[in-house]
Each structure stands twice: as structure tokens, then as C-alpha cells.
Amino acid sequence: MFRSNRTKADTRPTGPFRSSLRVMSSVAAAALCCIGATGLAGAVGPASVAGASGQSATTVPAETLTVPTAHHHRYRHGAVPRKTRNLKGVATLGTAASTQAPSASGRLLQYGGGLTAGGLSGAGVTTGQPEVYLVFMGSQWGTESTNGSGQHVFSGDPSSMAPAIQTFFAGLGTNNESWSGVFTQYCDGAALGATSCIQGSTLIPHPSGGVLSGVWYDNSTTATDQETAGLTGHQLATEAEVAATHFGRTDQASNRNTQYVIVSPPGTNPDGWANTQTGYCAYHDDTHDPYLGGGGPVAGPIAAFTNLPYVPDAGAYCGAGTVSSPGTLDGATEAASHEYAETLTDQFPETYPYAGWTKSTGDENGDLCAYVSSGPGAAFALALSTGTVAVQGTWSNRANNGKGSCMSGESDYVFAPVITSVSARSGAAGSTVTIDGVNLLGATSVAFGGSPATIVSDTVTSITAVVPTDGVNGSITVTTSVGTATSIRAFNLVPTVTSIAPISVLHGSSVTISGSGLGVAKKVTIGGKKAVVTSNTSTQIVVVVPVKAATGPVSVVVVTKYGTAASATPLIIG
Predict the structure, then answer these.
(1) How many CA atoms lie within 13 A of 126 on its CB side?
(2) Which residue in 56, 83, 552, 559 is deepest, having the highest Cβ count within 10 Å?
């Protein structure tokens, strides 16, 4: 949700929809310093501006934002507003707005239970490899061809927005990028209202090898006529369904993890995006949203779509120059990243209460971090194997010690490990044991009764480890970066005797027996006669040679509850 200095007279519509902006009094707005966690300067009053080198610069009045959900446009979910005032203060490479983060208190996203409709069940987030289909709609894009990288390019694309968007989507999940790691903490299957996921929930996966699954140039007469007239929300949803058919995704199952990004050509006005009061830079929705303007929902599978106008037309109003100079395409890829992130975490936003991960007010993970110019989660250049593009940070509930923060990237979230079974309840030192469970990959240590063991292999569901020579009877533990799992049952060591010293003694003398699994010895015999134990550890026992033991070579035997071990070398009593 974005803040504005619009007056109370501009009260937002009520009812079951998600607003992208909060309408408030000018007095309340003046008290705010920013949007997002470290976002754009407040609605009224001066904002300090500093150069990229950190040197002070001219102080200029603060910027304001449009209200994309005004005038009953209830379907504009997660809309990126347009900046509307004092563009001298817009963040650029040489002029970055100095901002300060407000308190993160109460800003955690909550799970809405997931959408259950049209063959879907508990569908709040993307649960498989994301699939993004780009639709360049309208013949105004001109002649289509491919560049040296195999990307679709168009003669009617003066700012080269088309290849930039393809660079972004085709590169996600490459070059070890951690931007996608922020989303992996959100899931389906959490409790209603939960702010974190639990074991058994289905997490959003980190994509692999890019998410761009197809590109289509729809330059049909119908598409061109609609673009010329100015698309409605209903027409955009219709185009998404047409695209789904074009790409062969005609049933609900094949659209479970898809996004259709409808990209408009220069000079067009899809769904009133250029309006100076209610315009926006992009928004996302799904095709069954009952509040779609111009005709409501459309038939076909429930499909997620994004309305991505020709963002370079708006220049600094939609973020040009926020990361690079001149940064003509910064706003375009930032807007694309905003809506992609929100579709992952709130894929089908048609319901009320909200199905995916949002605040109770409807803010999504991109809304909280739009136009952040400094600090955690500030817009930045994301290096991918396909190229480098500007993206915005997104909201992480787990950041800031669980208080939440905008982040530019995080390691993938994983649940704490759990041990479900062990291949044996006992074993000798040096033997291998298989530990089964979940979330075991990346184990930093395995221990038997507290003694570290050597890890032979490690997967998500299974670990093979070597029983340590100094191990003691007790639980097996597996530790990963997010926690420690403990076996329900204790593991018991089978005794072994590796040496005795001295090897030649008199009756009544002390003998030290070394080995493993000796800590629970029930009995020690020398030459068949029970010996008195004077000290006992897991690796060493000291006994007194019984006076009734026969003279000559005799065997030393240790008896425990879990087995019997004898010395390989006889003890000589003389």
C-alpha cells in the first residue's frame, strides 16, 4: 500500500478489494517520512537530496504519488503508483532521495488461506517452477525480429523495453542470484493469518535457469483496435486467456504456476495508466477477478496476468534513472520485478479476505518496498547470466530478526531438519548408519551421543554417517543452518576392544582396556573370572586382575547390554 497526501474527501471505495494506496488526510500524510521500508520521501514538506558520492545537494520539495485504486478501480492489485510532483527530486544516479525507514512494527505479511475456486485448492502462491509468458500486444510494436541473443525485438520499441524485459525473466534463477531467495519463505498450507510457514507447507521454489517460457507478438486486428481504444481490465484479462490458448495452457492445472505479462506498445494507454491522478506503472490480477473494469471476469482457467504498459513513456514518473544514468529502462524492469514478486506471493488476488501473503490492509510484498532509494531493499542492478537489469527490493518477514524489512536478496528459506528414522538402533564404531528425515541437506554436523561423526553423504531426505570411535550411547543429532533435529530413540554402541595394557601382569594388578562402546559395561571377565572395575568411560575401562584367574594367556571379555567384545591379543598372567 502506498501513501498519498490526498484529502479525506477522496475516500477510497469500500468492500472486498485490495487497495494499492491508503487515502489519508493531508495532516496525517505530512507526518509520514517514507513509503515502503525505506521508501520515497513523504507526501508534504521538503526532502533532503544527496548526490551519489554522498555530497549534499539542493533541498527540493517531496514527491507525491498517484492513487491507482481511486474511482473504483478495485482490480488494480499491487499497482505501482506514478510519481506526480517535483521530479527534480526523483532518485537518479546523481540525485538520490535521502530516506529513512519507518518502524517495521505491524508490517508482517499474513497468509490468507489460499484461493479455493475453479478447481484450485488453497492456492495462494506459486508452488512450482514459475512460468512467465510475455505477450506483446498490438501492431504498434512494428516489425518483429530477433537480436544476437535470440531475443524478440521490435521496430516500434524506441527504448528497447522488449529485450530488457526478456533479459530479466530469462535470467531469474541464474548466476547464483539471491533476489529470488526472499520469496522462498512464503508458502501455501500455513494457518490462516500466519506470518511464517510450518513444516509440511509448500514453499515458493527458487527458480532454475530462467522463468521465461514463451514470447508471443499478438498483432491481430482485434488486439490493435483494443490497444488504440485503450484497454480495459476485462480486455487485458481476455488477452491473457487468449495467450493461454496460444501457448496450449488451456486447463487449470497447466496454469497453476503461470503468469501472462501483457506488454503494451509506446503511446498507448492500457486501463488508464497515464492518468495523472489515478495512473500507475503496472499492476497484476487474475482473469476471474469480479471487479475487472469494462466487463468483469472472463471465461477460462483462472490465470494470473500483469498489465505492463510501455513504462519508458513515463520517464522519471515511473522510476527512470533510479539505479543507473540515464536509466531509461530502470523503471520498466523495476515495475516488472514488482508485479512478478507479487504474483509469486499472491497469485490469484480475486478474493476477500486475500488469498496469498499480504497485510490486512492489502499491501503485498512489492508494495511495501516500491521506490526505496537507500538502505536495505533499495532498487539495485541485478546481475544475471542474461545481463544486468534494475529491480526493486521486496519485503521479507524473516529479516530484521523476524520484525521484517525490505531486502535485495536472501538465502533460500528451508525448514528445520527432522529425523524420522535411523537404519539401526545400535552399531560398532566405524560402521555406517543411515539417517532418514526431511530438510537434512546442508547438514553442518551429525553427532552420536554428542560426539561428532563423519558425514559420508547428505541429501534432503537422507544422511549416511560413520559411528565415531568416541561415541557414547544417546540420541543422534543432525544440525543445519536453521536448526537441529534429534532422533526419538537413542543409538547404542556395540562394544569393541582395540587394546589392553599392559599385556603381561600379575594377579591383583590393574589392566586398562581401550576401545569403544565401553561406557555401559555390565561385566568384565579375565580368563573367565569376573574382574573388579575401578573406572569406566565410553572408550576405556580399568579393571583389577582377579586372583582366581588362571596363569598364562587368557582372554579379556567386556559384556554390555548391546553386545560382547573380546580382546584380540591375550592377556598373559604370570
Answers:
(1) 26
(2) 83
In the block, residue with C-alpha cell 534429534: 486
Q: Where are the strands (E) in 309-411, listed by range?
A: 357-358, 380-384, 387-391, 394-396, 405-407
Domain ranges in the chain are: 2-117+128-407, 418-493, 496-573
Kind plus residue range of the DSSP H or E element containing 27: helix 26-30
Residue 255 corresponds to which cell in the numbers above? Answer: 496454469
Three cell numbers written together for 203: 514453499
Cα–Cα distance measured from residue 332 to residue 282, given in angstroms and rounded to the nearest whole number = 9
Asked if residues 468 and 536 have their Cβ atoms less than 8 Å apart, the reply is no
Residue 352: its pLDDT value, please?
78
pLDDT at 57 over 80: no
Q: Give percent of the chain above pLDDT 90.
A: 74
Q: How far apart are CA 137 and CA 231, in angstroms?
A: 10
CATH class (in words) of the domain with range 418-493:
mainly beta
3-state secondary structure of 225: helix
In CATH, what number does 496-573 get? 2.60.40.10
- Which one-letter DSSP state was computed for residue 368? G
Strand, helix or coil for residue 26: helix
pLDDT of residue 414: 87
Phi and psi for 479 in degrees, rounded to 5?
-115, 130
Contacts of 395 (CB under 8 A, 6+ apart): 37, 107, 109, 182, 365, 366, 368, 369, 377, 404, 405, 406, 407
Burial class (CB in 10 A: 0-12, 13-18, 19+), 533: middle
Average pLDDT over residues 157-177: 98
Query: Distance between CA atoms of 396 and 306, rounded to whole angstroms?
Result: 22
Coil, strand or helix at 71? helix
| Nearest residue to 462 (alpha-carbon basis) of 447, 478, 484, 486 | 478
Q: What residues contact residue 106 under an 8 Å CB cut-off, 6+ apart?
A: none
Alpha-carbon torsion 496, 501, 505, 509, what sign?
negative
256 pLDDT more than 90 = yes
Record the pTM. Answer: 0.73
Asked if domains 418-493 and 496-573 share a fold, the reply is yes
- From residue 333, give the alpha-carbon distance in Å to each of 42, 167, 328, 530: 24, 9, 10, 81
